[in-house]
Amino acid sequence: MLLYLIVMASCGYLSLAFWQIARFKSGAPIAPGAPTSQPMISVMRPLCGAEPQLYECLRSFCVQTYPHYELIFGVSDSADPAVAVVTRLRREFPSLEISLMVNSRTHGANPKVSNLLNMIDRCQHDVLVVADSDVCAPPDLLADLAHALAPPGVGAVTTLYTGVATGGWVSRLGALWINDFFLPSALVDIGLNEVDGCYGPVTAIRRQTLDEVGGFPALKDYLAEDNRLGRLVRARGLRLVLNTKPAPTMVNSQRFLDLFRHELRWARTVRACRPLDHVLSVITYPLPLMLLALMAAPSTIGLCVVGLHVMLRMLLNALIHRRVAVTGKASPLWVPARECLSFMVWAVSLWGTRVVWRNREYELRTGGFLVPRVAQALAVEPAIGVGSEAQS
């Protein structure tokens, strides 16, 4: 009976996904008319390491059509290989205002937010755009963000994203999850609940709004700082607006274990922040349960149900590549394997609170609160003499 309900719910979900993708207009204007002003923008890009396509991703923000902006890059170590990429861009674009902030000071458990806190004093302008290092922006991204942020009552602008594989089959699996599973589910959620949180890769917000919700210090100990920022903005009675042009994001995983850890961290974050949504997300990948049921009780009807589900998933894959600006060829034959892997990640994420982020281990608490595991160990052994350092 439970499996029957899951299959029926999955059919309903896929119907909604088809509807939302079919009516989605990538790049459609968020509000009619041209923006009345073009405020100066400070673009903040926290960096850590020289990942594949880093130069191309950082350069995409140097060739924006927007006339008034500055770029602030931040690293925690002067020996970080990303510094060489920023130096190259400063030579290539001498007329563009590019700053590099090197600061090893740690604020809280989230290293990205810690980097942003070290960069914020360098920002000169009221409108802030925070962009991850793996985002390759379309040339009109800043113009779209400024337009979307202009109307009264808008607190922040967030951007959906697509996955771009940068390597072999592992990164293709990662990109397929973003494009075929995350993107439709996000659009379904937005269709049902409006925009209720920010998506990590690109966010635009006014400095005054950020200060009103507690600034970056309010986010420094949370793994899903983007989602928390959006919820804090909404709690102030302000709207979150979706930029309808998804930003391509590089998927750099080269090893299966790295991809699995990344997606497990993501799934456990959803479980910590939105536990009911996490449980119900099983309806987005019921294929393994359907296959197990078919193996236990083979039947023509069961085989037809499985075949119908796979066919609908492949059709959704084709529709996504037609309606959304997804880089790369459609890979419908990979979809069943990707769905089975997604179910495996979901099942494992039901237990445990340990997550791995940039080779560091953390404990994930309710609401996405993040506690470094090393700090926990030091806290119970102050005799080692470095307890205060771990908390600094």
Summed up:
By secondary structure, the chain is an alpha/beta fold. The protein contains 15 helices and ten strands.
List keywords for this structure.
about 400 residues; alpha/beta; Spore Coat Polysaccharide Biosynthesis Protein SpsA, Chain A; seven-stranded mixed sheet; three-stranded antiparallel sheet; 15 helices; 10 strands; globular; disordered C terminus
Outline the secondary-structure elements.
Blueprint (H helix, E strand, L loop, with lengths): L1 H22 L17 E6 L7 H6 L9 E7 L6 H11 L5 E5 L8 H9 L7 E5 L9 H9 L4 E12 L3 H25 L8 E5 H6 L12 H11 L3 E13 L4 H18 L1 H6 L6 H10 L3 H24 L11 H15 L4 E4 L2 E5 L5 E3 H7 L7 H5 L1
Parallel strand pairs: 1-2, 1-4, 2-3, 5-7
Antiparallel strand pairs: 4-6, 5-6, 8-9, 9-10
Helix pairs in contact: 1-6, 1-12, 6-13, 9-13, 11-12
